[in-house]
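Tokens for chain A. Residues wanted.
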């Protein structure tokens, strides 16, 4: 596939989930590939997102598990110490290991890794921060996104999820702005580590897009655990006090003083200063690269995958986009990503997960809808004396009985939902769920016993 007109067949900007997959598979298909990464190979998911977050979630669960353990006969010393530096450093060491593994995978597939920032200078040309200029037949933009920080006086005193993994100590009092994925996940994590957490959101809704009853259940449980919420709250200013504390002034509520303010108010595509205008690439109003179903931008030789396109900001989606790009372009297997029925989860405490249409979406789209649910206290919670109840919902097409959505909150909901999502994707009916014998005793058995 060597083409002497250009330095490379493919030049990928960004070695995150989408870029790494595209680079590796394209090279395996025979393309001469380079990937430029200005920070660390692995990208948001591996370095400062899904992976370290999930490890913190595991760490946070021990707080409740150790408390519950007594009811199961274990003698747990009181007080039971938690060392944040130990967990933090172990998590960061695991991130280093994965960074090495991703780097190794790329190099073993013959991908040239360039540790520099790359900017587009035309449809087939780039300049690198190390001074080099290179050319490529095709360019793939896979630069991801970064946390959005509202333009509020004193915003420089706050942190984002990027910094949360590196904190010196667990803050005693923490205000998290936003009520989406990151806000709810980090609220759960730091609450379990002993912080007093306040979530502040500009509207009254948490986790927009998830099923209303499931979101309500998380809100109830979070409040029961001691998390505080400030709804319909808009920032006025953040003031750093003489003792280092931060006072957050907001419209509609009394000011609150905390030790740490974290912004979790969405993410912005990393297209600023990337030179995309030199190739005539169209962006949307949020700065995301506009692409067609083949991930091709408005410049025919430039493609984009992952969060920078702001389609679905999830790692497995970016990976599929990278794979589809590589197989279509260099593997002789034209294919496109199917965005229907993508399962997703929020690793809150407890976690929630969903696939397909929510009840309200189904009512709007289908008209006739049947909803089955199970509201139960998991066996483990009963013995532990824990009041938290799980809620599973199945949304079916009223005409055909086809399951169009499953939504759940409770222990291990993401683990259970992944399997259930296969059935929803396959278009199975409620009767086919019911025909499956329950696996007893489990929480997942509720899925075949729903009324
Ligand atoms: P989300 O879009 O999930 O949530 C953003 C929150 O911030 C919402 O509550 C929103 O309010 C609020 N908000 C948005 N803009 C402003 C603003 N200008 N001022 C004040 N509040 C604002 O974003 P996250 O940052 O939590 O996460 C980013 C993305 O990363 C997610 O969309 C998700 O795709 C991905 N992610 C996935 C995870 C997973 O799969 N488990 C985990 C973490 C992230 P409102 O709803 O009222 O607009």
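Reply:
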């Amino acid at each position: 596939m060597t083409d002497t007109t250009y330095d490379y067949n493919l030049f990928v900007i960004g070695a995150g989930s989408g870029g790494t997959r595209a680079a590796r598979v394209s090279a395996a298909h025979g393309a001469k590939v380079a990937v430029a990464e200005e920070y660390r190979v692995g990208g948001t998911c591996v370095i400062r997102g899904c992976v370290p977050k999930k490890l913190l979630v595991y760490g946070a669960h021990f707080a409740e598990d150790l408390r519950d353990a007594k009811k199961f006969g274990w003698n747990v010393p009181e007080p039971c110490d938690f060392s944040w530096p130990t967990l933090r450093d172990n998590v960061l060491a695991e991130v280093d290991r994965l960074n090495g593994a991703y780097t190794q995978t790329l190099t073993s597939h013959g991908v040239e890794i360039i540790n520099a920032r790359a900017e587009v200078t035309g449809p087939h040309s780039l300049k690198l921060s190390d001074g080099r200029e290179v050319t490529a037949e095709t360019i793939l933009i896979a630069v991801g996104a970064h946390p959005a920080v509202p333009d509020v006086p004193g915003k420089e005193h706050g942190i984002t999820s990027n910094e949360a993994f590196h904190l010196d100590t667990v803050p005693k009092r923490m205000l998290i702005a936003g009520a989406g994925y990151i806000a709810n996940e980090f609220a759960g994590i730091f609450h379990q580590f002993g912080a007093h957490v306040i979530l502040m959101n500009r509207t009254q809704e948490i986790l927009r897009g998830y099923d209303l009853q499931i979101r309500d259940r998380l809100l109830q449980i979070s409040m029961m655990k001691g998390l505080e919420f400030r709804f319909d709250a808009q920032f006025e200013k953040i003031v750093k006090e003489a003792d280092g504390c931060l006072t957050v002034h907001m419209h509609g509520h009394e000011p609150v003083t905390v030790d740490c303010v974290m912004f979790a108010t969405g993410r912005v595509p990393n297209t600023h200063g990337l030179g995309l205008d030199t190739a005539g690439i169209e962006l949307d109003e949020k700065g995301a690269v506009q692409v067609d179903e083949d991930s091709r931008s408005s410049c025919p030789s430039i493609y984009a995958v992952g969060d920078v396109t702001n389609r679905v900001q999830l790692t497995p989606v970016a990976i599929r986009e990278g794979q589809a790009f590589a197989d279509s372009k260099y593997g002789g297997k034209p294919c496109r990503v199917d965005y229907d029925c993508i399962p997703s989860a929020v690793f809150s405490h407890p976690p929630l997960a969903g696939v397909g249409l929510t009840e309200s979406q189904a009512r709007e789209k289908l008209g006739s809808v049947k909803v089955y649910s199970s509201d139960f206290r998991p066996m483990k919670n009963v013995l532990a004396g824990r009041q938290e109840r799980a809620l599973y919902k199945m949304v079916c097409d009223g005409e055909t009985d086809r399951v169009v959505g499953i939504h759940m909150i409770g222990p291990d909901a993401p683990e259970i939902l992944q399997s259930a999502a296969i059935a929803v994707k396959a278009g199975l009916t409620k009767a086919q769920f019911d025909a499956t014998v329950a696996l007893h005793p489990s929480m997942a058995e509720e899925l075949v016993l729903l009324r």
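The chain is about 30% helix and 25% strand. The chain has a mean pLDDT of 97.
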